[in-house]
Design brief:
mainly alpha, globular, disordered C terminus
Length: 294
């Protein structure tokens, strides 16, 4: 949905990069297989990372096969398949996308609203299948997004209240079958969710100023212009604190595999995105609003 949760590619080993790409491609194929190709248009690094972390707690972590797709029709690419974590992440991706479309329909006007209505209708069948696969997550996502809508209508001048609401949404993406690791995973994804919400608010500040949309940073610091540098120290502190908390949770995880990739994202990828957004140098490519970007 957002695409902020990505590895720092320059510091990945080649086999780690190939592994992450195989998870990304595997998630794409899993979404297409279970819910339809159209849903792969919303594929993001965020859900690929969810799949990777969930698979790190499985006994086998899925198997690797080679497949072609519409984006890569000439050459088969390695894809992970046969994983419960991958399947669950596919359902989460579809559910989040459909709830986001509903939110767009409620908030936007004109062509954006019309486009969201059309996509929401086209996504309906796949969404119903995803709800059957992850009903508890769908309920929690709906509740949390309803709470966010209330905070937006109230123009809540708080960072913690809306960020906590979105964090609880992402925490709910952890499935029950993760067993004794569930509490650790919930804590890890809670703090990643909080970071995602706040970094997205930073990234959207100029656009929200122009459109008059709700932005907790503008209201919390009573900004009169979209200049994030005046409050950068406070934002940098709270963003890095969330990343530190997620990493501390990860230290308790003891994954079966892929620890190097998970740490790369937490310790290098997310901090790099943080500084890019705060510096104004972040670009929404490489997985954000771009299909088949890896």
């Amino acid at each position: 949905m957002f695409g902020f949760v990505r590895p720092f590619r320059d510091e990945l080993k080649m086999r780690e990069y190939d592994r992450f790409r195989s998870v990304y491609c595997g998630l794409c194929h899993e979404i297409a297989r279970k819910y339809g190709f159209l849903h792969t248009l919303a594929l993001s690094y965020d859900c690929a990372y969810l799949a990777l972390v969930l698979m790190s707690c499985e006994a086998d972590g899925g198997t690797v096969c080679r497949k072609r797709c519409i984006v890569h029709p000439l050459r088969k690419r390695a894809c992970v398949c046969g994983s419960e974590g991958l399947s669950h992440a596919a359902a989460v991706s579809v559910i989040l996308t459909c709830h986001k479309l509903s939110d767009t329909i409620a908030d936007e006007r004109g062509i954006k609203r019309l486009g969201a209505r059309i996509l929401r209708r086209l996504y309906r069948r796949g969404y119903r299948r995803a709800v059957q696969d992850a009903p508890e997550f769908d309920r929690t996502a709906g509740q949390c997004l309803s709470e966010l809508a209330v905070l937006e209508r109230e123009q809540a001048a708080s960072l913690d209240r809306p960020a906590d609401t979105f964090a609880r949404l992402l925490r709910a993406a952890v499935p029950e079958q993760t067993g004794i690791r569930r509490r650790v995973l919930e804590e890890l994804f809670y703090h990643i969710g909080r970071w995602i919400y706040l970094i997205d608010a930073c990234d959207d500040l100029k656009d929200d100023f122009a459109s008059g949309s709700y932005n907790p940073i503008r209201l919390r610091f009573a900004l009169s212009e979209p200049d994030i540098q005046t409050v950068r120290p406070q934002l940098e502190h709270t963003l890095l604190q969330s990343l530190a908390a997620s990493y501390h949770a990860y230290l308790l995880l003891d994954p079966e595999r892929d620890g190097g990739i998970i740490e790369n994202v937490l310790c290098q990828g997310l901090p790099a995105v943080t500084y890019q957004v705060l510096d104004g140098t972040y670009h929404n490519n490489g997985g954000k609003n771009r299909h088949g970007s890896i």
